[in-house]
Specification:
about 40% helix, eight-stranded mixed sheet, seven-stranded parallel sheet, 15 strands, single chain, alpha/beta, about 325 residues
């Protein structure tokens, strides 16, 4: 019988370090051809939309898919054990999804950002996704301070206070996005429909994690940011073609050749930094893939078995 695991189970059984390790392993399998991912599919109806995101990893022996019914805020992962040929778990996955998105940026930062003694992080956006983004980057780099910009002054101040305590690094609220754009590691975590980050702001050697453009109606970075990027890495080329608002126009204009863009799995499997020099500007375009959900769900399931968590479903 499958285990039923709640949001609280997921929070109790997974840390950011766990998530980064799970996703790094999954991308290594992806780059070696042992993990599979299918792009997100969206079914739109008059009263809501349903997204389905499948993925699997032969290295761990698990596959599955995440479903998200946005109108109800209902997000679940169905995890299958390939060896035992059974449904292993049904997992509530709102927090799992937020954690794995941050962890993916952590993996990308590990392989794409410079390895300076100390670095400044800048983030545009102060919502829930922003929290795990900052946590993940601080987990893989020696961060001296974080600059946070959001349109709402009170919200960005609250974000700065809470994140300073959470990551043990000074987080400073700023009232100008351009200041954020001058950081060593820049993160955009918004649902913007027009660019919030201008390429002209970026300094040589900067790394950018752009996570909010998972729809052709969304765009966080301008054309100049894409043009200035010496290295662009995506999570999944097929999914990028379907829903990358940031890269749609550059691809159509011939500035970016999608077929030649490396996936994060290619970089991780290679075991070396994606950048060619310290002056390179690097860009990770994160759209969110089912392989991430399955990777972290596998960790949660295994931890639940070890610790006796969850309830068995009689189905």
């Amino acid at each position: 019988m499958p285990l039923l695991l709640t949001e609280q189970d997921v929070r109790d059984l997974s840390t950011m370090d766990d998530a980064i390790a799970a996703l790094e392993s999954a991308h290594k399998s992806q780059g070696a051809g042992r993990a599979v991912n299918d792009p997100r599919r969206r079914l739109r109806a008059p009263h809501g939309a349903l997204a389905i995101m499948p993925g699997g990893d032969a290295e761990t022996g698990f596959l599955g898919f995440k479903t998200a019914f946005y109108a109800a805020g209902a997000v679940h992962v169905l995890l299958y054990d390939m060896t035992e040929r059974k449904l292993a778990a049904i997992i509530q996955a709102n927090w799992l999804g937020t954690l794995r998105t941050g962890a993916a940026s952590g993996v990308a930062t590990k392989y794409m950002a410079r390895e300076d003694a100390e670095q400044t992080v800048g983030i545009i956006g102060t919502g829930m996704q922003a929290r795990t983004q900052v946590s993940a980057v601080c987990a893989v780099r020696n961060v001296s301070r974080v600059l946070a910009y959001g349109r709402d002054e009170d919200r960005r101040k609250t974000f700065a206070e809470r994140m300073s305590e959470r990551v043990g690094v000074p987080v400073e609220p700023v009232d100008n996005a351009q200041i954020v754009g001058e950081a060593d590691i820049v993160i955009t975590a918004t649902n913007a429909s027009s660019p919030v980050l201008e390429g002209a702001w970026l300094k040589a050697g900067a790394h950018v994690n752009a996570i909010g453009s998972n729809s052709l109606l969304r765009r966080e970075i301008d054309m100049e940011a894409v043009r200035r990027a010496d290295v662009i890495v995506v999570d999944d080329r097929e999914q990028t073609a379907i829903e990358s608002g940031d890269l749609q126009e550059p691809i159509e204009r011939g500035i970016v050749d999608l077929a030649r863009l490396p996936e994060l799995g290619d970089i991780v499997a290679g075991g070396e930094s994606a950048r060619r020099s310290d002056s390179d500007i690097t860009l990770f375009e994160s759209h969110g893939i089912g392989l991430w959900d399955v990777a972290l769900a596998t960790h949660v399931y295994r931890a639940a078995i070890e610790q006796g968590r969850g309830a068995e479903a009689d189905i």
